[in-house]
Amino acid sequence: DDKFRGNVWAGVGKALAGLDLSSVRRRFDPRPGENFDPTGFLADRGTLYLLAEADDPASRLLQCLVADITRTAKDLADHSPKSRLDPPLTLVLDEIANWAPLPALPTYVSAYGGSGVVTIAVIQSRAQMARSWGTDAAKAIWDSATITGILGGVTDAENLRDFAAIAGDRDETSW
Fold it and tell me: Which of 15, 85, 97, 138 could form a disulfide with 116 if both were Cys (CB 3.0 to 4.6 A apart)?
């Protein structure tokens, strides 16, 4: 709808209007040598901590940063002699469904591990995964996870039945 699109773009225009001023744009330009270089970051075996809240507008920028680093790592792995990143990149994505549900997370979990990009995603429930990535992608994430840990507080009966089926039965004698 043209009217809806016009209203959306009017809001975007207002939000970004300050960037029309060259003096404001210059404040966002990094000084020479201050650019973030994902390739150099990976080569230096860097550690990066990102913090955001669900409603934080900056979370989308952090999402882009994680995606850029991960894409760079995968590209480096693809062009390395063993097709693996060495040393590996470990993504520890705690509460990722809450602050920035990465669209490519299903691919990271299912396909990038063999390239040396290890993804640890901490998510509260499969329902949360389905809300963030859709039912099919949530199932793909769940099925592709090499290790599935169950943290305290899980109360969903279906999840608990599935966990019990995966773990199997075991008889134990205690004194």
Answer: 85
Two structure tokens written together for 19: 């960037």
Helical ranges in the chain per DSSP H: 2-16, 22-27, 38-43, 59-78, 96-99, 105-111, 126-133, 135-144, 157-167
pLDDT digits (tens, 9 = 90+) for 146-172: 887 777 788 888 888 888 888 888 888
**Prior bond of 87 cis (ω within 30°):** yes
How far, in Å, CA of 123 to CA of 96, rounded?
7
Q: Is 31 helix (H, G, I), strand (E, B) or coil?
A: coil
Output the pTM of the full model. 0.73
